[in-house]
Amino acid sequence: MGAALPIGEAVPADGALPDETSIGPATPFSVYLHVPFCRVRCGYCDFNTYTSSELRGARQDEYADTLLREVALARNVLAAKGPLRPASTVFFGGGTPTLLPPGDLARMLAGVRDAFGIEAGAEVTVEANPDTVTDATAAELAASGVTRLSIGMQSAVPHVLAALDRTHEPANVRTAVDAARGAGLDVSVDLIYGAPGESLADWRSSVETALTLEPDHVSAYALIIEEGTKLERQIRRGEVPAPDDDLQADMYELADELLGATGFEWYEVSNWARGAEHRSRHNLAYWRGHDWWGFGPGAHSHVSGVRFWNVKHPAAYAQRLASGETPAAGRERTDAAARALEGVLLGTRIREGYPVSELLGEGRHAVARLIADGLIDGAEALHGRIVLTLRGRLLADAVVRALTPGL
């Protein structure tokens, strides 16, 4: 059910932002809609999700109406600070958003449109489990304004899926992709590498299978062992091996090679797109530090340097909103040092890079050494941008530490 929430300052019952908060009207605004329901809990997952037996006082069939109460609250909060900005991207994440009827997702999207507006040509993404997507589902989502389906493939190899506790039928990935294509939706597939027992040959098979689906976008994430998960307990007890860092590096390099050979370009450390027009604009909004409001239990938001987060359990979330109170559990205001560190951390992850001119003090002096070590692109640095090389992507955290001494 996810890691513990951070400790922050209290949020007023009406959710009002701090008096000194000033929202830049030109800053893009994005919306994240969290759907916290899953049929089963995957052993590696620490997201804020709940199976039916864990809901205790919350109902899936009432969820859309509950979330729309938060949308109304957010509209009031933001309207108090000036003109409302239409959403440039909307993302339904989870959990498994497609466990809800498409009509519920459509009502939630319509509520966002009514409250804030949605820009013409906005990217609207729904994450989906392959087993939950039919032609009718995809068609109804497209009719509601969804433009993109992000399909949780994870692997094409049965024993790897079993190690991850993924229960979908591998053949249904193609069924879901075909349904999305038939509805005119862009398609992204998500992969995970480094599962217990997964070989380099297994990983090659998964990437090559994903490429046969001809998606527009591929995300490939290294398996991270999160504290408190089933998988972490299995590793601690010696039942399964921990991920091998060297093997995961080999898997990353193989993915980059195979994807690059078929026309995909990396634009963020874990993401590749078939042309700039297919990059995830919603995820780029996070990496570029735009404003967003996250709706739903445990969702996090960022508005003009103020970060706030909701209570985690769906029942507590619903109870707060039913009583007319914000579901926000706490908030924090970032200081200059935190903003500088975050800017480097996020900016170096994307292909457009981070401006050398914005590095502080000793960070600038590290650039020459990082070029010599083959971690950042020398030609790009001469043009004023910090852009990671392939080796630098594998050692991104070390690059950030070198560029932010003392932060």
TrEMBL record:
Would the keyword Heme turn up in this protein's UniProt record? yes
The alphabetical list of record keywords is: 4Fe-4S, Chaperone, Cytoplasm, Heme, Iron, Iron-sulfur, Metal-binding, Oxidoreductase, S-adenosyl-L-methionine
Which top-level group of life is the source organism from? Answer: Bacteria
GO BP annotations of the record are:
porphyrin-containing compound biosynthetic process
Q: Which InterPro entries match?
A: Aldolase_TIM, Coproporphyrinogen-III_oxidase, Elp3/MiaA/NifB-like_rSAM, HemW-like, rSAM, rSAM_sf
Q: Where in the cell is it found?
A: Cytoplasm
Q: Which GO terms describe its cellular component?
A: cytoplasm
Q: Name one Pfam family in it.
A: Radical_SAM
Q: GO MF annotations for this entry?
A: 4 iron, 4 sulfur cluster binding; coproporphyrinogen oxidase activity; metal ion binding
Q: Which residues form the Radical SAM core domain?
A: 23-265
What this chain does, per the entry, is described as: Probably acts as a heme chaperone, transferring heme to an unknown acceptor. Binds one molecule of heme per monomer, possibly covalently. Binds 1 [4Fe-4S] cluster. The cluster is coordinated with 3 cysteines and an exchangeable S-adenosyl-L-methionine.
Family statement: Belongs to the anaerobic coproporphyrinogen-III oxidase family. HemW subfamily.
Name recorded for this polypeptide: Heme chaperone HemW
Q: Which organism is it from?
A: Microbacterium immunditiarum
